[in-house]
Amino acid sequence: MKKKRVIVGLSGGVDSSVAAYLLKEQGYEVIGLFMKNWHDESVTISNECPWLEDSNDAMLVAEKLGIPFQTVDLSKEYKERIVDYMFDEYAKGRTPNPDVLCNREIKFDVFLSIALSLGAEFVATGHYCQKSSIQTAEETTYFQLLAGADVNKDQSYFLCQLTQAQLSKVIFPIGHLKKAEVREIAKQQGLVTAEKKDSQGLCFIGKVRLPDFLQQQLKPKKGAIIEIHADSPLYATLPTKNDSLEVQSYKNQYIADNGVQVGTHDGAHFFTIGQRKGLRVGGKEEPLFVIATDVKSNIVYVGKGKTHPGLYRNALKVKNEDVHWVREDLKLLKEKSMPVSARIRYRQPFQKATLVQKDKALYIQFTSPQSAITAGQFVAWYLGDELIGSGVIA
């Protein structure tokens, strides 16, 4: 009987290395493919060449496992679909998530197409998440995207934009394991990646810090840092659960006269809601946090302490065109609601919330106020351990 062919995205890290090993052990015909997604020398901030090092490690793993290996250059698609989008979003004062986009646009779209053209039945990655399926009474099969068994490493959030068609072709070989178990398997098999640290840079760009990367295109521009005090009249009547969802999801619009200047910055587009580092304003009894940015006026608004009222909101809004249902059969109809668990960032503990579908937008109302809800980021919602949908925060 012919073996089923699986192409593994070998990244040069321990997770994808062990994913490839486990698939081979399970009897698949495994091929390793390394994605080279960035080679623009103008954004390298050191003499290190991470993609070359990672590619070499991936090749050594493939040799050790005795599987074919090759590199594909997806840098053109990566620049068009991820990098250009990122610069555009930051220029508008929004904060995109490159890892979510990378999975949606590159790993499970361009890369998946290449794998299928090479005769693969499935692609596999080293993501800490799991997959299952259910059948409806009408005998329609729906694939389920489930959280990883390792609570501290669960990466389902990063895959929140996947479709049923993409999920049908994906295997997550390490989703049932804990990180320590993955490293132990790699060690036992003598894989060169066993002790390798997890990458910290942008998805597939490598050891490049985001501010340095952004400064390649978004030029520095001096502006004011304005502190808004917690006892400002602006917060005299904060929205409550009794207010409309539109009011609860509304972001405070500040002007310079609302506060006092406490410093300067190099460009409002370099900052994001909830940010603490990089403000370079000292002498405060509590740290300052970014509570809003205005890229048109080039002003960064800050508040003192992590309990500052400007950081919190009860609800958020996702425009209809930015709503994505992984489980299309669960899609909400107008004026319907659904209790869910939600998270607005990777590894955030699940938050109790209610989805409410209105005419032009989906609202998510949280049981507890949420800190640093940020436009451009993704919110993902779950039923139990299953991620059923997501959207871009307005």
Count up the helices: 8
Proportion of residues in helical segments: 10-25%
Name the structural class. alpha/beta
- Name the assembly state: single chain
Our estimate of the beta-strand percent is: 25-35%
Taken from the alpha-carbon principal axes, the silhouette is globular
Q: What would you report as the Rg, rounded to the nearest angstrom?
A: 23 Å
Average pLDDT figure: 93
Spatial separation of the terminal alpha carbons = 52 Å
The biggest sheet, with number of strands, parallel, antiparallel or mixed sense and barrel status, is: 9 strands, antiparallel
Q: Regarding CATH, which class of the largest domain?
A: Alpha Beta
Taken together, the total number of domains comes to 3
Work out the number of β strands.
18
CATH topology descriptor of the largest domain: Rossmann fold
The CATH H-level superfamily of the largest domain is HUPs
Ranges with pLDDT <50 over ≥5 residues?
Answer: none
